[in-house]
């Protein structure tokens, strides 16, 4: 053992032995009983290190104890204990067992004096609880150490298994592990827009003294404020995302998880963690104490937390969190539809609001055409205030309506799911010039398993009685991309969105007998054991393409 550890270790065990002897005889209070229970378990417990942050894992309803004895000095010495809950509220207490020098056997007066010491042991040994706390805030106890005193920290979680961090220090001269907060640690909201919120906060004294090693990090989410960065990281992990420790605090390169997006611009590091419960953004902006948060959703409440971070130790201190609701978007103006013009409408799934289009008829017979690009959409059409059609659409849908000249039609579109949807809309009096090509009975692509080889696959799709152009595209994908690709496919996007190298071929065909209106193609030159995504586009007289449902096929690994 080093001399410094020896000086700590020896008084601790002398004091422990004395406390054990005394605890058998003395009447006990609740604090005394808890302390004595801890003493008997001392050798199965841990000594808390001075000047080092310790992570403590707690099991539900099982108390955990840590001990420490402060080195002797010439007088009372200050010390602090900081406890940071990383999840649920906890209970913690600080107890002290004080003993005099004579209690430790330091008297040298012979048998008579020893008997006197034995009689006075009860008076010279006191156990007391000097601090206790229950909650999930970061809490610091500041006190003065006593000679010949043994301290015990007891922690308890009654809700569930959790973890906390504990920091003990007696060094008040060489700086702090945790950055300092200003006298007023509040975050002020100084500006609110439809998609932005501007925040400002007072500088930390640590930033003014150690600008190179201190920075601010901002956490943005839609659920609630966090009282520590430790609690925020725990919540992000529990939502189903793997968050590397202190990821938001380090500017060094890190391999992000698929659910994370990193944005580095203007010396700011922004990490967006995407989960089913919403986004959690972490933005580190150096030592700037004013920041405008961009790309927020309108009419949404957000919670903002600022942490001042020591880059050398990754320790942080939390400002008092705040919240703000972005401004509601003004009601969109009703868009006027024009004969033959195609428009594409994107619908926000979070709002579930109607998007309105209006049209004044210049003919007695008109036709509305809808092509669903993504998601699910409900269409509601009224004529002069009376409902004439209302249904959920999929794929292509036509509504042929009759009326009078100058009848007013109102088309309302609404998403039926929580994510964004989009749809193309056209109104036209020309029934003989349809917007979309004649469609087959099914837009599915079929593959033939028995015809697969290590470097080729054979696919087939249905055609129509009308001669049309069909173009085939392929793209190599990975296993973990299949579900996302199939779910996010934009059925309205044409070949112009594809890379030229993905094009396989284009061909014309038709058959007056629908039973024979089917074509096959064998695509060669593929890699063995590899997944490919195949798409077929159908072009009609108008030139607007219709995309078949994507098909994923894997070539054989061995042939």
From TrEMBL:
Membrane-spanning residues: none
Q: Which molecular function terms from Gene Ontology are attached?
A: heparin binding
Any idea which UniProt keywords this protein has? Glycoprotein, Neurogenesis, Repeat, Secreted, Signal
GO-annotated biological processes: nervous system development
State which gene encodes it: Ndnf_0
Subcellular location(s): the record lists: Secreted
Glycoprotein is among the record's keywords: yes
- Tell me which domain of life the UniProt entry assigns to the organism this sequence originates from: Eukaryota
Q: Which residues form the signal peptide?
A: 1-21
Task: Give a short account of what the protein does.
Answer: Secretory protein that plays a role in various cellular processes. Acts as a chemorepellent acting on gonadotropin-releasing hormone (GnRH) expressing neurons regulating their migration to the hypothalamus. Also promotes neuron migration, growth and survival as well as neurite outgrowth and is involved in the development of the olfactory system. May also act through the regulation of growth factors activity and downstream signaling. Also regulates extracellular matrix assembly and cell adhesiveness.
CDD domains this protein is in?
A: FN3
Residue span, Fibronectin type-III domain: 232-329
Protein name according to UniProt:
Protein NDNF
**Sorted alphabetically, which InterPro entries does this protein's record hold?**
FN3_dom (IPR003961), FN3_sf (IPR036116), Ig-like_fold (IPR013783), NDNF (IPR019326), NDNF_C (IPR045805), NDNF_Fn(III)_1 (IPR055271), NDNF_N (IPR056225)
Task: Give one Pfam hit by family name.
Answer: NDNF_C
Might you report a single GO cellular component term? extracellular region
């Amino acid at each position: 053992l080093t001399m410094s550890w020896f000086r700590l270790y020896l008084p601790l065990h002398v004091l422990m032995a004395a406390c054990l002897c005394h605890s058998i005889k003395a009447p006990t209070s609740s604090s005394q009983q808890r302390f004595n229970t801890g003493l008997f378990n001392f050798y199965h417990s841990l000594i808390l290190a001075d000047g080092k942050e310790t992570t403590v894992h707690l099991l539900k309803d099982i108390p955990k104890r840590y001990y420490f004895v402060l080195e002797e000095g010439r007088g009372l010495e200050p010390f602090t204990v900081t406890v940071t809950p990383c999840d649920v509220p906890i209970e913690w207490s600080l107890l002290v067992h004080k003993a005099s020098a004579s209690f430790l056997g330091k008297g040298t007066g012979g048998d008579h004096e020893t008997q006197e010491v034995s009689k006075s042991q009860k008076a010279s040994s006191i156990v007391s609880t000097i601090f206790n706390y229950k909650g999930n805030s970061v809490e610091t106890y500041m006190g003065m150490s006593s000679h010949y005193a043994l301290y015990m920290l007891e922690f308890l979680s009654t809700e569930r298994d959790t973890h906390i961090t504990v920091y003990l220090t007696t060094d008040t001269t060489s700086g702090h592990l945790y950055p300092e907060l200003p006298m007023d640690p509040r975050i002020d909201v100084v500006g609110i827009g439809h998609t932005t919120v501007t925040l400002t906060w007072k500088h930390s004294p640590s930033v003014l003294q150690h600008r190179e090693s201190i920075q601010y990090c901002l956490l943005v989410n839609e659920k609630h404020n966090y009282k520590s960065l430790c609690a925020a990281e725990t919540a992000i992990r529990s939502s189903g995302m793997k968050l590397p420790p202190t990821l938001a605090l380090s500017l060094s390169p890190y391999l992000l998880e698929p659910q994370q997006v990193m944005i580095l611009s203007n010396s700011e590091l922004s990490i967006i963690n995407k989960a089913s419960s919403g986004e959690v953004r972490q933005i580190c902006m150096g030592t700037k104490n004013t920041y405008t948060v961009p790309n927020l959703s309108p009419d949404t409440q957000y919670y903002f937390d600022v942490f001042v971070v020591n880059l050398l130790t990754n320790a942080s201190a939390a400002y008092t969190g705040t919240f703000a609701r972005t401004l509601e978007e003004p009601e969109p103006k009703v868009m006027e539809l024009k004969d033959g013009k195609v428009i594409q409408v994107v619908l926000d799934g979070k709002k579930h609001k109607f998007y309105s289009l209006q049209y004044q008829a210049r003919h007695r017979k008109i036709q509305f055409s809808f092509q669903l690009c993504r998601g699910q959409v409900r269409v509601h059409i009224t004529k002069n205030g009376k409902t004439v059609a209302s249904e959920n659409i999929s794929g292509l849908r036509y509504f042929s309506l009759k009326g009078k000249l100058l009848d007013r039609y109102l088309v309302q579109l609404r998403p039926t799911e929580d994510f964004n949807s989009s749809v193309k809309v056209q109104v036209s009096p020309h029934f003989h010039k349809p917007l979309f090509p004649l469609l087959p009975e099914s837009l599915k692509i079929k593959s033939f398993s028995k015809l697969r080889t290590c470097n080729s696959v054979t696919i087939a799709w249905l055609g129509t009685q009308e001669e049309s152009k069909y173009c085939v595209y392929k793209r190599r994908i990975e296993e973990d991309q299949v579900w996302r690709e199939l779910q996010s496919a934009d059925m309205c996007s044409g070949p112009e969105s594809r890379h030229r190298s993905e094009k396989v071929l284009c061909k014309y065909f038709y058959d007056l007998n629908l039973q024979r209106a089917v074509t096959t193609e064998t695509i060669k030159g593929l890699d063995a054991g590899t997944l490919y995504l195949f798409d077929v586009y159908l072009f009609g007289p108008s030139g607007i393409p219709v995309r078949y449902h994507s098909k994923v096929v894997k070539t054989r690994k061995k042939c």
